[in-house]
Amino acid sequence: MRQLLTLLLLLLFASSAFAQERITDEEEARAIFEEVDDRRKSVETEKATMEMVITDPRGRTRSRTMQSWSLNEGENTKSLIVFTNPGNVSGTGFLSVDEDGSTTQRLYLPSVGRIQTIGSSERGDRFMGSDFTYEDLGAQNPDDYEFEWLEKHENHYLIRANTPDSDQYAYVEFEIDREKYTLRKIHYFNEDGEQIKRLEAEEFEQLSDNLWSPAKMTMYDLKEDRNTEIRWSNREINVSIEEWRFSERGLRRGV
Predict the structure, then answer these.
(1) CA–CA distance, 39 with 193 (Å, rounded to integer)
(2) Which are the contacts of 189, defined by CB distance < 8 A and separation ≥ 6?
(3) Is 88 exposed, middle or buried (0-12, 13-18, 19+ CB in 10 A)?
(4) pLDDT of 192 higher than 50
(5) Of 119, 98, 99, the residue nearest 107 (C-alpha)
(6) 161-184 per-position pLDDT tens digit
(7) pLDDT digit string (tens) for 87-125?
(8) In which region does residue 140 sit, left (phi positive, over 0), alpha (psi from -120 to 50) or beta (all else)?
(9) Is 134 inside any structural domain?
């Protein structure tokens, strides 16, 4: 019995030590994140239906339905979201284009018939009243971060990265699945080291040989005690998408 207890204690200690292994190695942390990015971009195109549910601090909900298109061309990415329901937001479009390391975001509001370019001062604004900001909807390229350290846990990596170009986050911590190289969680921190938001990804679907993608993501605003859930359905990958979709014409035309 004593030998069994000793063995259990040794295993517990080994597991704990392994879970707390922290490596100050920017290059290794970057390489892991780049693998996540490479797998995400391995799918050239995707079309999907998205449902957004916003829950306020009193538990009241608002729902939105959207159609999305995305395109990966090497290091460049383009995405378009068009709202289809409810009626008061139907036709609203959001276009994000990341080319040569620079991101341009535009919002089309049919009620005023105008396309608005999202400036740097607006990147921290809520997207359509949700808990996602325009910055959160960016491409999240490895070059956007200064990687600091990583921890190797049994089932995931934990990577901390500074965000020098962000006005709302001082640094983030990524939880990355060690087997599938998918982002499971992102923890967002302010200048005081306080965690202010958390993104959780769930219900992973295998879209290709090496890409697993969540069918559900939830952003939690920890300061405001509210959250926004997004679900994907009717996903189609590597299908033909007209180039005009990712233009001002696509923004105005809608679905």
Answers:
(1) 31
(2) 169, 170, 171, 172, 173, 195, 196
(3) exposed
(4) yes
(5) 119
(6) 999 999 999 999 999 999 999 999
(7) 999 999 999 999 887 899 999 999 999 999 999 999 999
(8) left
(9) yes
Q: Note the pTM of the prediction, 2 decimals.
A: 0.90
185, part of any domain: yes
For the cut 70, the answer to whether the pLDDT of residue 16 exceeds it is no
- Tokens 């290709």 — which residue? 208
- Which domain does 198 fall in, by range? 22-253
What pLDDT shows up at residue 20? 57
Q: Which amino acid, 38? A: D
Question: Residue 164 maps to which CATH number?
Answer: 2.50.20.10
Side chain identity, residue 234: N
Q: How many CB atoms lie within 10 A of CB 10?
A: 10
CA distances from 225 to 35, 99, 196, 219 (A): 33, 35, 10, 11
* Residue 2 within any structural domain of the chain: no
156-162/226-237 β-pairing: unpaired
Tokens, residue 200: 């959780």
Under 8 Å between Cβ of 73 and 42: no
Three-state secondary structure call for residue 209: coil
Please give the structure tokens belonging to residue 237.
């990958």
Report the domain count for the chain.
1
